[in-house]
């Protein structure tokens, strides 16, 4: 697994291919203007089938790479006092990394892997991360109750699977429309879905930061939300923590994706906007662009829909 992640000041860019789509991606995390520490984590990784040649009588390269590739994108927003949130998000990302390398079965599949099979396996990975975070807290009382959101996108064969817990978000930008793929697992979001309060009231509700489903927390049993989507050329995938969405509206996010030429430019613009509005929380953004190899089509103007 080729890993591409960063600390606050040194993001990396990844490029790869999945079936007939070229993928360009970039991730950026920032502590914001109010927090002394950054409890967010992110990961961009590329999975390849590689055989390293130890010894051979043939005239061969030292490594042979298969054509099949997978692309992993992940955002985690930790919570808990005394650096517990930072530890929870770190443990969750490390657990997903270990699962991907050691347990993901896509490498050994005879048939082409699908988003559905990957979704089932990454659901197991999130459940394992839940056990890891809970177990660490049991051995360290000062970490009791620590937890993290986790929003994961995995791309293989032009298909996307999204696995999600918490109130970080995944969005798909397609044909000028921004669609929220994930639901917020929070007390206030549940009130909105039940019709008990209006969406506009949720932004000011005193319990808007109470999360109802996390990796870790006070009890085991994370419930992973899952989606699978067929990707198209000109699609953009956005994963982000609530440090972005609390400060920047969906209309503004869509407009940035419509105008930005590269994932890096879009990430930097979104983080700047969140900080310009006050930067009340840590801000993390991953953007992946999916393009045909010969694509020259400019992005469309932005519209927004939520599901």
CATH topology: Phosphatase 2c, domain 1
Whole-number mean pLDDT? 87
State the CATH class: Alpha Beta
The biggest sheet, with number of strands, parallel, antiparallel or mixed sense and barrel status, is: 8 strands, antiparallel
Helix tally? 7
Strand tally: 15
Portion in strands = 25-35%
Q: Provide the structure class.
A: alpha+beta
CATH superfamily, by name, is PPM-type phosphatase domain
Q: Measured on Cα atoms, how large is the radius of gyration?
A: 19 Å
What share of the residues lie within helices?
Answer: 25-40%
Shape: globular
**Distance from first to last alpha carbon:** 33 Å
**CATH architecture, please?**
4-Layer Sandwich
Low-confidence stretches: 2-12, 297-307
Walk me through the structure.
This protein is α+β, with helices and mostly antiparallel strands and 307 residues long. It has one domain (2-54, 62-183, 211-306): Phosphatase 2c, domain 1 (4-Layer Sandwich), CATH 3.60.40.10. It contains 7 helices and 15 strands. Strands 1, 4, 5, 6, 7, 8, 11 and 12 form an 8-stranded antiparallel beta sheet that branches. It has a 7-stranded mixed beta sheet with strand order 2-3-14-13-9-10-15. Strand 9 and strand 10 (177-180) form a beta hairpin. Helix 6 packs antiparallel against helix 7. The chain is globular. The two termini are 33 Å apart. Mean pLDDT is 87; it is low at 2-12 and 297-307.
In short:
With 307 residues, the protein is α+β, with helices and mostly antiparallel strands. Helices cover 27% and strands 33% of the residues. 45% of the residues are buried.
